[in-house]
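User: I'm curious whether this sequence folds into something compact or stays loose and floppy. Could you predict its structure so I can see for myself?
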Amino acid sequence: MDISVPGVAGGGDRAVTTPEQDPGAHTGRGRVPRVNAAVAVMTAAALVLTVAWSWEPSMWADELATVGSVSSLDVLWDTLRQRDAVFLPYYVLMYLWTRLGTADWWVRLPSALTVAAATGLLTDLGRRLAGARAGVAAGVALLVLPSMARFGQEARPYTLAVAAAVFSFWALHRATETGRWGRYVLAVALLPCAHLFAVLVLPAHLVITRRCLPWLALGSPPALALAALSAGQVGQVGWLGPPTWQNIVLVRSAITAWMPEPEPGDLPAAVLGWLVALAGLAAAVYLWRREPGRRAFVAGAVVWGVLPTAVLCAVSFLGTPVYNSRYVLAAAPAFALLAGMALGRARLPVRLAALAAAAALALPQQAHARTASGHQVNYRDAAAVTAAGARPGDRVAYAVPWAREGLTHYAAMPPEMNPREAMGARVWLVRERTDRPVRPGTSAPSRYGLARGAIPKVDVLLENRFAVRRVWHFRGVTVLLLERGTPPR
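Assistant: Here's the prediction. I'll summarize afterward.
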């Protein structure tokens, strides 16, 4: 593979170095492969920025599912057999990875590495299509999205899908240049291994060139195998409903989907996502008119960006709901690429102003994603408070899904409350974050907002005359210390 240093056109801001003008953008037989400086800098910057503070956010339910599923071969086998066969390649990777450690930053590192890979490959693809400035602009447009920070610091496969999608288009472009298709076959095979829905970008390859069809077919067996393995586990997305207008996006930029309690910086991040999408579509129109030789790739990039959301939304409305905005994260680089290709033609002040405006919109959520509460819930601090205050004989009751896994991931907890056994004098009740943990005007624990299955636990505490003595609130979690004594008022 030759990723060589391009020449830079001189003579003003409007000069553009195209692949035809830049012999360094093509493979030269007999030359020693060199890494382009801009690509190297963008890749390194993406890795540093994504890894930075990745140890701060508390793990949330999906990440805890990853860590739990790969804790042993027996657990991994049961997980794949019962519910998550679609994640077989990712879980095998993480099983091997966690043999070297299970610190939060370490299990998130594969996601950060794939953000760096996606940024570097997108930068190089933009460089080869429209020059170095376009490549850098495309890489920055992708990296600035808060969703890249969030999912780049999450032990789930979504940024692997982003990197696999970018790699597939990069490999396709290189194959059309060199006539060597081996990397492209590998890229197609990797797409479903990252995430099965990532294969929705493949029709865009056929828009670019039909020459890829036999090679696409050659790389398709992993997709067919994973689809067959997971066909009986469609119920795993049974929690999804038809998408609402707030959740339908072309570019997932916000760190969470639309929530009843908005995250800090939600609105600017959502605006940024739509601005990148609209800028990409406007750039496609501009490039279609100004770059007749690039029309096939421009059209393919539009299909890359639009088709995954369109397909999943159509299936969700007409059949089984399968749309979630993180499932279409792999479409975001398409719009970043198109916008970067157009920005590469702009004057330097325009490029800097556009990227500065994007950074300003992204900054609140880029910062929030790296806090203890950046992944929707703060189990770490809840565990620290419980562990620090626990005494011999204390018990704990979990009244919220995943709280047990979340708190025990960060600290040793008291034994779990068992109504058939002596409960001692104190119980720690862990429940979803609520502003009404105590019945108004009393010291009795409230059942307000609890799931039906958790209500009996509170009833047991009430029957045994436990009263709330102290309450701690964290993102997504409320911890109550209850003591047995006088009847709750």
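Summary: The CA atoms of residues 469 and 482 lie 6 Å apart. The first strand starts at residue 395 and ends at 398.
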